[in-house]
Design goal:
Layout lengths: L2 H13 L7 H16 L2 E6 L5 H11 L4 E5 L2 H18 L6 E3 L9 H12 L8 H16 L14 H6 L20 H10 L3 E5 H10 L9 E4 L5 H8 L2 E3 L1 H17 L3 H23 L12 H27 L6 H26 L5 E6 L5 E6 L3 H9 L4 E5 L6 H5 L6 E7 L4 H4 E5 L12 H15 L3 E4 L3 H14 L4 E3 L5 H10 L4 E4 L16 E4 L10 H10 L3 H18 L10 E5 L3 H4 L3 H7 L4 E3 L2 H12 L10
Parallel strand pairs: 1-9, 1-10, 2-4, 2-5, 3-4, 5-9, 11-16, 11-17, 12-14, 12-15, 13-14, 15-16
Antiparallel strand pairs: 6-8, 7-8
Helix pairs in contact: 1-3, 1-4, 2-3, 3-4, 9-10, 11-12, 11-14, 12-13, 13-14, 18-25, 21-22, 22-24
Length: 644
């Protein structure tokens, strides 16, 4: 390792309360430094407790290169910027500039703020009475004081509709040069800070937007570091695709109506806009009937006709907006009107372009309808590797890291194997003595409904042994709901369920009460960090294989042919299983059991691919052994006890 990197890492650890040298972290820092220096790619699996953020930040800051660090979430962005980066910067002997850059919709829009204040001052509808009005007044008060306009500054998460009224998305924004408030734009100021920084912290979706745009979103940089790299493939698939939803169409129509109405054209243009709203309603009906299905171009004359009609009506509205935009310079209040027209033009133009893509996808793209309460027509690339090879791996060195690295990640993302090094630095936690992996091998086939009663009996018995303290993870909402009902009737501990509150509120309630159980689905398989005795048992109801009829996975399986299970399904399931199991041990003092209620983990021919992806826990098929382990943690003398 570079002596400068070693000294800096030592000073950083010395400044941390209880900071100690970790071999895995040192090994990672050395490998990152070498990769950046040699211009090679690196994939690092750094288990929980390694301290991987410092393992890549220290060599990055010491390298003298301009580096983009991409993280999974905006919350992790803020953690790096407010805690980790300042800590490393203080340990350096030179000044290093760093900046956080987020998507445009995360920043207050000064132009929309000015329009809202203007309406309110004229006694209009800018600020409503009641709770919604109080929320708007709080936002307006913050807007008068903020210097960077980032919604992360707000103590409480704002109402989504209120925030949308004071911000713009990337597709709505006409650009600083066409906006009356462009010179004082918060988003543009953030971009300017990023352009002058040595380290720029972004989230994966903004990285995806940069790749999709051909590299115009992020500033020039010499290298890229991706944290939580196991999420990169899915995020890039979403970013490189397109999505048309009835809600997005209605929002564009509402924006156009606001702009056209201000131009005195409400009566003249009302029919066109009404037709656009009608198209949104009809599209919603058509998509709802096709949830979770693949759409082959030409297979649905009705859907094709509706998409063509949407594109035509958007074109009509766009033409009218452009005509008014050209004439708005002489109208009273032209500045505000021009801004509204420019936003509406940008939004309708983006939608019309997406319609064209959706009706004529390329041979390497798949179109399907996403499920849920708000279906959308979605286009995605079947394989992101060619896109990322050109946009990322052929441009500069890339470091990919995660606590769980999926098998074959380099090939799936497009990295050249000859230019890529891979390593696993392990975890400092003593999994062998602190954690037990239990597989209920005696249960029936978990793909059959008749196996559910036995699985529920296992779940409740384990909860009793753990004294509550359980995070139960499910692969479907319906299974979670049935299990929660059964558990509430059988166990003496509170059971929280996803959907009965926001994620943050549920996790807070779970962490505060040691006897509480939390039942959840995929949104909680990762990103949940609850250390201490409040979480002593993680139950996973089934191995998280993708749905057989998932349209995107079906297309990928078709392309992979006979190797589909090994190359598509198994790596994905192994990664998700490891992420779920990783919720258990979050600190050096944590103890507990991971229980998998799916016998395939013990009996299937591919079981070792799954087991090897998990932390090195001791394993058992005997429930009584798991129960004894859990009871030892909750007994009167369990505090400080080592179960070895």
């Amino acid at each position: 390792m570079s002596s400068g990197v070693a000294r800096t890492l030592g000073r950083v650890l010395g400044a941390l309360p209880g900071g100690e040298s970790r071999p895995g972290q040192q090994e990672m820092a050395e490998a990152v430094w070498t990769a950046l220096d040699a211009g090679r790619h690196l994939i690092v699996q750094a288990g929980t407790g390694t301290g991987k953020s410092l393992g890549y930040l220290v060599p990055a800051l010491c390298s003298g290169k301009r580096i983009v660090v991409a993280t999974a979430t905006k919350a992790l962005q803020d953690q790096l910027a407010t805690k980790d980066l300042p800590l490393v910067q203080r340990a350096l002997s030179r000044q290093v500039r760093f900046a956080v850059l987020k998507g445009r919709a995360n920043y207050l829009c000064r132009q929309r703020l000015a329009e809202t204040v203007a309406v309110a001052s004229l006694g209009g509808e800018g600020v409503e009475p009641g709770a919604r009005g109080a929320g708007m007044r709080a936002l307006l008060g913050w807007a008068e004081q903020t210097e960077i306009g980032d919604r992360a500054e707000l103590a409480d998460e704002p109402d989504a509709q209120l925030w949308a009224s004071l911000s713009v998305s990337a597709e709505e924004c006409p650009g600083a040069t066409r906006c009356p408030s462009g010179e004082s734009c918060f988003a543009e100021a953030a971009r300017a800070r990023a352009a002058a920084a040595d380290i720029v912290v972004v989230n994966l979706h903004l990285l995806g937007a940069d790749v999709a745009s051909g590299g115009v979103v992020l500033p020039e940089h010499d290298a890229l570091i991706v944290d939580e790299a196991h999420e990169l493939e899915d995020v890039m698939s979403e970013s490189l695709g397109r999505a048309l939803s009835p809600g997005r169409l209605r929002a564009a129509a509402a924006g156009a109506r606001a702009a056209l109405g201000d131009g005195g054209a409400r009566r003249r243009d009302g029919a066109q806009l009404d037709a656009l709203f009608t198209s949104a309603d009809r599209l919603e009906v058509l998509l709802a009937a096709r949830r979770d299905t693949r759409v082959v171009p030409g297979s649905s004359a009705e859907l094709d006709e509706q998409l063509g009609l949407v594109a035509h009506r958007l074109g009509e509205v766009e033409q009218r907006l452009r005509s008014l935009s050209q004439a708005s310079g002489t109208a009273p209040g032209a500045t505000a009107l021009a801004a509204r027209l420019a936003r509406a033009l940008a939004s309708t133009g983006a939608l019309r372009g997406d319609c064209a893509r959706l009706v004529d996808p390329g041979p390497d793209e798949v179109v399907y309808v996403t499920g849920g309460a708000r279906p959308a027509l979605t286009l995605a690339p079947i394989d992101v590797a060619p896109h990322l090879a050109a946009a990322l791996f052929q441009r500069h060195p890339v470091v990919l890291t995660s606590a769980t690295v999926p098998p074959r990640l380099a090939a799936r993302l497009g990295a050249d194997p000859a230019q890529t090094d891979e390593m696993d630095v392990g975890s400092p936690f003593d999994y062998e003595h602190h954690a037990l992996l239990y597989c209920a091998a005696h249960l029936g086939d978990r793909r059959r409904p008749d196996s559910e009663p036995g699985a529920l009996e296992e779940l409740c018995a384990l909860i009793d042994a753990a004294g509550g303290r359980t995070l139960a993870l499910f692969t479907s909402h319906s299974a979670m709901q049935r299990a929660a009902e059964a558990a509430r009737a059988r166990v003496a501990y509170p059971v929280l369920r996803q959907g009965e509150g926001g994620k943050a509120a549920l996790l807070d309630a779970f962490a505060r009460d040691e006897g509480t159980c939390l039942f959840a689905t995929m949104g909680f398989w990762q990103g949940v960090d609850v250390a201490g005795p409040t979480l002593s048992l993680v139950v996973i109801d089934r191995i998280p294989f993708g749905r057989p009829d998932d349209p995107l996975l079906v297309a990928r399986r078709e392309r992979a042919g006979r190797d589909a299970f090994r190359t598509i399904d198994l790596p994905r399931a192994a990664s998700l299983l490891a992420q779920g199991a990783g919720r258990l041990i979050r600190s050096a003092t944590d103890r507990g059991v991971v229980a998998v209620l799916d016998p395939r983990l013990a009996t299937a021919a591919y079981r070792w691919d799954l087991v090897r992806a998990l932390p090195p826990m001791r394993r058992t098929r005997r429930r009584e052994e798991a129960e004894a382990f859990l009871r030892a943690l909750t007994g009167p003398s369990a505090i400080g006890r080592d179960t070895r």
